[in-house]
Amino acid sequence: MSSPPTSLDSRYKLGRTKISTSDITSIEKGIEILGTLLRASIDKNGERSVETAVLAYEYGRGLLRAVTVRRETPQSEESEKVEKFEKEEDEEDKAETKRSDEEDLGIAMENVELAWEVFQRNAEYEVKDADNKGEESEPPAKKMKEKEFVPQYSSYCLSNLARVMIGHGDLCTAMSDYQKSYKSYLSGMTLLEADVERLQSVEKVVRYRRIVDCLVCVCESLLGIEGDVEDADGEVIIEEKEKMETILGYYTAGRESLQKCVYAFGEGIGEGRREELEEEKGMVCQISVLLMAVEGRIREREAELKEAKETKKVKKGEVKGEDGKK
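The structure assignment produced for this chain is given below.
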């Protein structure tokens, strides 16, 4: 599988490392690095090239990370860290660092959606090529410019598309758009499940852990939606009265995937790959806790719905009683 040169750049890797921390100063520096690389790639490779899409996604992810950390950090502590970062910048750059959460999320959304579009177009070629058993395939979009479609990157795009979809779901969640986040997480989960059984033990542990994480996010998104669940055209795909049953279905799928993850973990230990699984052990435990938290939220919502139903019955009975007196 060929990787775009931008994904192999040491500065790209440094930027990714910095935006993955919980320190706002480090995150802002990572955003600056990725932003510089992104602008250079647009000039060199074009806005809709795979090379640019790789950077666009990470740049958007960095902006989302900055918003998340700002929201979680006490205002006084955040101001002190941002001020420290700004002192290291030129006067011209200072204004650029002072962005609102809304602005950051908007810019992040533009970049992540661009990455999704480019990755999906190139990934479709890989899927079509596989269906044709190696026969020559037509590019998925005939009007795409030469740099927008590079066959050797199609495998890379397909293997990373789920990550982009899930990142889009995270962005929608941060914007409280649970209708969209539900569909993005579901799309990512479908891709993750596609070839999981063909993976080896350790890789299977990682994949099932990601699937469980996705199912947790699917449940959380559905719990955040008020009323019916609708598609992009406004058509109802899940009625409100069916929503809890749907959530329970995804929760059950999450438990089943977690069991498969644990089983694959045992296989990996049996194969002598304990050292490779050491980091995953903590992450699997963490996702188990998150799944249990979802169960708690489901029980709370069921109790709320039951109480609301009983209250409605009582009120209805009172109205009937008053009508009878009259």
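Interim note for the steering committee: The CA atoms of residues 196 and 207 lie 7 Å apart. Strands lie at 229-230, 236-238.
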